[in-house]
Amino acid sequence: MKLHNTFSTELPWACEPVTPTPLSGARLLHLNRSLLTELGLADVSDADWLACCGQGRPLPGMAPVAQVYAGHQFGSYVPRLGDGRALLLGQQEAPDGQLWDLHLKGAGKTPFSRFGDGRAVLRSSIREYLASEALHALGIPTTRALVLVGSNEAVQRETLEPGATVLRAAPSHLRFGHIEYFAWSGQGERIPALLDYLRVHHFDGLDDAGLFAEVVRRTALLIARWQAAGFTHGVLNTDNMSLLGLTLDYGPYGFIDRYVPDFVCNHTDSIGRYALDQQPAVGYWNLQKLAQALAGHLPDAALQQALDGYQQTLMLEYSTLMRERLGLQCWEEDDPALFRRLFQLLAAGGVDYHLFLRRLARLNLRGELSPGLLALLPEGEAWPRWLDDYRARLAREGSQDDERARRMEAVNPKYVLRNALAQRAIDAAEAGDMAPFIRLFEALRHPFDEQPEAEDLATPSPDWYQCTTLSCSS
User: Which of 79, 164, 245, 347 could tie 125 with a disulfide, CB 3.0–4.6 Å?
Assistant: First the structure.
């Protein structure tokens, strides 16, 4: 290992040293060996990972700390949150020189646990482990999962559940809420040091105005990619928003099954604040709160200019992604209307979003519809009319069936982390069987490939699991 502790040494006032609390009966459940190799950690033994992540014994060179931050949660400001159940163990220097945070979730109480137990459960740890790697394979910026540890320790959530930890990695876990905490706690003089840390380690020396503009740009790109992938984060509070534009803090997330534009995956979100179709607006709202925290450190005009670029960046990225998903290689003025009609039909018919786009790739411009595509579509005249217009649109740009199918299947996944699949892996793991988890994990690492041995993982979710909501402890 080549360990550093840049956060705790350069920003000691932004964290508190904490010793991890061992889990009773800790056992190693999974190592993400390809990522361990990528980070230069392949030589660390299984026993060392178990000691580090489950037995309260950090590896030499690690200096665990809990970070302090604040945040707007469901629209209301909470002045002191912080790493209530997670510890930054240090930064590993990868072979390419990139520093990666090693962040252990479920390691016990910290000064920021409030009334919590500082623990994570196996259910939520598996969900985060699977989702972070699934989004990475889809090309969506995210934290990554390194190590999963289970235990015999009972943790109270809605029911008693087995405790677990997950070690995650990312270039940084800095959040909007870090800046908010120091802005609104009377410590605004600390913010320039935070910006300097970001500039030196993550933003290639950009000045403050350029740094904020880059945060806006990355946030817009991230949310556009979520929208195109049908991914709902579920808890887009500012403390869950990465300053690096990463998907951060997986809780009650969900990929849509049938196309439901206002899909809500969090059962505590009774008003749909964080519904799928609200994520672009929420991203902008959160950036406004970050801009307010930076007021006085950056000119108002620079903050507003950066914010003004958000919508255009998001819409341009989303439009580009959806054209790619539909196999279109150029832009036509009527494309937005074609897209709107498609989404209306998908919603009206409750059509499976992912299977539709995947099977649309094999549409023949001159022949009959494939049985697989036909099976997804309701009867009536609306779908044939849209498909005729879509075929005409493809013909105008000289689209070739085989070449278009290849391109579309490279961006429309066959394997998606549907909640029903995750739940089946969780149920088996809680019964002591990790085989379904491992099988699903491996399939999700190659979401665009044909995997005949995993064909059952590419089927729609069962009707009983459509659009099920989850709790924040998920």
Answer: 164
